[in-house]
Amino acid sequence: MVIILTGICVNLVVGGFFWHYRSAAGRPLHKNILQYLNYIIADLGNPPRLERARTLGRQASLQIYYEGADMSWTTAENFSDVYKAHWRDWSKNPLIRLGRYHGHHFLELSHDSGRFIFGLDKSLELDPERRRLVIVLLTLLTLILAGAFLSIRWILRPVRWLHEGVREVGRGNLKHRVPVKRSDELRALAEAFNDMTDRIRDMLHTKEQLMLDVSHELRSPITRMKVALEFLPEGQTKDSLKSDIAEMEAMINDILETARMHHLHGNLKRQLINLADHLKEILVDYAKQPPGVQAGEFPTGIELDVDPEQVKTVFQNILTNAVKFSDPDDKPVMISVIKQANFTVVRILDHGIGIPPDELPFIFEPFYRVDKSRSKRTGGYGLGLSLCKTIMEAHGGRIEVDSKPGVGTCVSLFFPQ
Ligand code: ADP
Fold it and tell me: At which of 124, 141, 166 does a domain end?
């Protein structure tokens, strides 16, 4: 924008300069023009002679038109522009009127012997020399501005790198590094940015490691508690303790499973599966859970090279969420399979409560639950989607969620071909 505005301003200044220059250059002419025209009229004789007008016209590159009481003539073959011309008085000389038609200029002078109109030869007006100069000037200006624009872009490259860096880190890619090339203030900024990303990664890693260690350590006491529980007399306390321990155990298993999946890349037990058969097997479990799951578009014969157990976990997590966050009398959850150029997409669409738009970016984060109270009721620790994302990425695919509160949620699973 700055460059464009500069371009406009520079052109206005240069244009203004030329305009001023032109009117300044014409000033002496204003004073002399009447005298000059009177000389020509006197030279034409009385009555004015066409022959003489032709000679003078040739010499001075003028077209002359005369209209007297007894006769009228013109030196031009085609003088029709005179009749179409737009006429106005000339402020600098009240005896002269100016006419203009399509870039053709005329001067009208009323004389004792009649009315004279002088037309400037078009070849004179065009002044190709000046025109070329203006084109060269505009080209040079454009080149200078384009050069300035490119050099500003080059100078500000590190800002673009930093912008990309912020976006990547914002997306969770903490391995991204901003190039550190130049030796100026922007280099210091890029180094500081990279240091900050390193520190955030270390902090997250430490936190993750601590959680893993604690989860791991908790397994043995939980097992001991389970054994001890068996010796307690039956009753409400025992049941409540049992359910609490089961919840803790499930949570710890989820945490450990997510961590295991993070290091799974390349360790998948891949095999070719028939997608339709695999899904049908999983769907059996959901048939009796209201609002139920219905198969939509479902091409048969699609084979995927995946780890069947892990992919089953993904489908189960997504389907469980879809059923869990729907009302029993909502429309059934729809599952469909679509073939795209590079991916097979499995879509799971529910008509449940949906997810608010400002929560969507966070649902793949471990332990993220949209509504903590509702999640307590529905169970779950916010680990399901994080695990699904890890599994899908380990397979070279991805997961996308679209949702509208009160309308429903659509989860798309992209499996590479
Ligand atoms: P959870 O174990 O709590 O279900 P997830 O990681 O599977 O954890 O999901 C994270 C959060 O995203 C859930 O707590 C829930 O609020 C929201 N969510 C996931 N799927 C759906 C869905 N189909 N409809 C509405 N909200 C959903």
Answer: 124
